[in-house]
Amino acid sequence: MDCNRRHLLCGLGGLAVGGAVAGLVAPALAAPQAAPAPGERFAQVGGEFGWQPHKLNADECAPVAYEGYWHKGYACGYGAFYGIIGMMGEKFGAPYNQFPFTMLEANKGGISDWGTICGALYGAAAAFALFWGRRERTPMVNELFRWYETTALPIYNPGDAATGFKGALPTGVSDSVLCHISVSKWCYENKIEASSKQRSERCGRLTADVCRKAIEIMNAKIEQGKNYKGTFPIRKAVAGCGECHMTKGNEANWSKGVMDCTPCHSGGKAVADKFKDHP
Ligand code: HEC
Ligand code: HEC
């Protein structure tokens, strides 16, 4: 991370991890700033992307993410984020423990139950963004999201600590980072209602899985610094379709995003016309 003079507080944040020093530094970080002059904007407290990242133990954090999912029903975004930043707060104090964690509750059900991005994924990406700007963060997000698209989830099993449903759950590959596709496909394939406890349990476990993967990525990033590279290749469809639809200067350069194109543009049964001759 870039801790130059402009990021003076970044250095202070580093000191704060000493433990005892944290109490001294925290009020400084939280101190109110003078209002900016008219037409000017205030500088971000702590510097932009200015917090100091710490390695975490994924074995310890994944169950906390699961617990966070169930905590007052704050769900996936909150659980994944608390499993990372909350755990830094528990270990290192300020500034991590000063984050308004409930902000992440908005990610429940793909943002207020809209089924857009999987909230656990957003929670992790937001955690990355406390420490790394776009150029450094994107390979980390790519790694996490492509892992999510291609991995049979959920993996985590809380055993007797299960809150919604005890026992094994079926797993499935979503091919998509979207809550809607990830949940609906799993429910359809296993004939489980989307509003059931099993489905909630599935998402709670998946929150632990995302937290674990995000911590593995973060730890690798801390070790490798600017050289960090993910291991999951770009999806074949994105590379192929992108040759025309995502290539500057091409007459068909209309497509935005690097989600796998397959679930929506393969003409499969689920994406055929359901508005006629449908039960
Ligand atoms: C060789 C270049 C090329 C590749 C590769 C390509 N497309 Fe296209 N695509 C086009 C062009 C050109 C059009 C516009 C055709 C037209 O005007 O009817 C188009 C149109 C489309 C459209 C809108 C119109 C329609 O027919 O539905 C979609 C959606 C689309 N492509 C998706 C994809 C996907 C998904 C892939 C990968 C599986 C892909 N394309 C691969 C060139 C390409
Ligand atoms: C989550 C589903 C989803 C994914 C994933 C997705 N698309 Fe689309 N895409 C759509 C929908 C829905 C539209 C709007 C179609 C319409 O116009 O009715 C669209 C529009 C497009 C269009 C404009 C053509 C049109 O008919 O509007 C292109 C080109 C396109 N997509 C290409 C891609 C490519 C390439 C990828 C992969 C990199 C991709 N899409 C991934 C659902 C998706």
Automatic annotation (TrEMBL):
Q: Which domain of life is it from?
A: Bacteria
* Signal peptide start-end: 1-30
According to the record, the segments passing through the membrane are 114-132
One Pfam family assigned to this protein is: C_GCAxxG_C_C
Which keywords does this Swiss-Prot/TrEMBL entry list? Iron, Iron-sulfur, Membrane, Metal-binding, Signal, Transmembrane, Transmembrane helix
Is Transcription regulation one of the keywords UniProt gives this record? Answer: no
Give the molecular function GO annotations: iron-sulfur cluster binding
Report what the protein is called: Split-Soret cytochrome c
Species for this entry: Desulfovibrio fairfieldensis
- Highest classification ranks of the organism: Bacteria, Pseudomonadati, Thermodesulfobacteriota, Desulfovibrionia, Desulfovibrionales
